[in-house]
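To close the chapter, one final illustration. This time we ask the reader to focus less on the individual chains and more on the assembly as a whole: which components sit near each other, and how the overall shape emerges from the parts.
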Amino acid sequence: MTTEGRTVLAEFHPPGPSSFELPPIFTIAGVEFTKPMVLVILSGFIVVGLTYAFARRAAVVPGRMQFAGEYAYNFVRNNIARDNIGSEHYMKYVPYLFALFMFILVNNYYGVIPFIQFPSFARIGFVVALAAITWVVYNTVGIAKHGFVGYLKHETVPGGIKGPILLLLVPLEFFSNILIRPITLTLRLFGNMFAGHLLLILFATGGAYLLLDSGNALYGVVGVLSFVLGIAVSFLELLVMFLQAYVFTLLTAMYIGEAIADEH
Amino acid sequence: MEGSLNMIGLGLAAIGPGVGIGLIFAAYIAGVARQPEAQSRLQTIAILGFVLAEALFIISVALAFVLPI
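The assembled structure is written out below.
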């Protein structure tokens, strides 16, 4: 495209949802494997390998690996599980919560590891599965504790309220506690990973375009600024990735704690 | 000019949660400044409020890309 003597070498294509639709890498028995699928499978091995390495040489005076592992485990056990489920029954749920935390953390940090650079939870299908597992877990433990009718009553009838206002509150509570919770869990993790990665792609490709292809020296200055901002956003993403893993585990623990709470 | 009007709506939708998250962390900071030993308890509550306020914006991020113009 040529306008008044200035030559624009290439059109800039802003990143969009199509940036996340990667072509399949290889095919096994008719199933096409894409990069996020490979990464999620790999993350299972990474989590098992890491926790094995943490626990392999358990000593009274912990080494570096053991210290890191115990720090993460203590964080999940004390700050997430015990504070939200209650000090009586929390140990039963720590394995699930710790596995969930490590799994989400590894998958999120794929987004900033060089050469991988794709947070696999920016594809919504994986997150739907995780949220579905959490939904099944907290409903199952609730039903096991209170019975089916008792559990529905426990979740949908707020304590201390009588009379016709219940007609309004019960459907609302059912809607928010049973139906909406897995949806918000899914959208929160997916949305954060998706938006964060989109932002990083935008700064990187936009910066490269302005610097190399725009054909204007002044645009180049903005391109450098774009790269600097991209680095700053990467640090923000480091925080967000940890926070989302924490929040997903925290909300799971809170839902479980609420489901098995005694009547008040 | 090309683009989707959804993105303007997305920007507008960021205002509400932005103000809300600011208020939540302002209250958290004030609480910790008054009573530093309550930090660990307040932190959980503050982050919970933060994610609940943020959920509104995240839903609009999803809708902005899903809905047609």
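Chain B has one domain: 16-66. The radius of gyration of chain B is 16 Å. With these observations in hand, you are ready for the problems at the end of the chapter.
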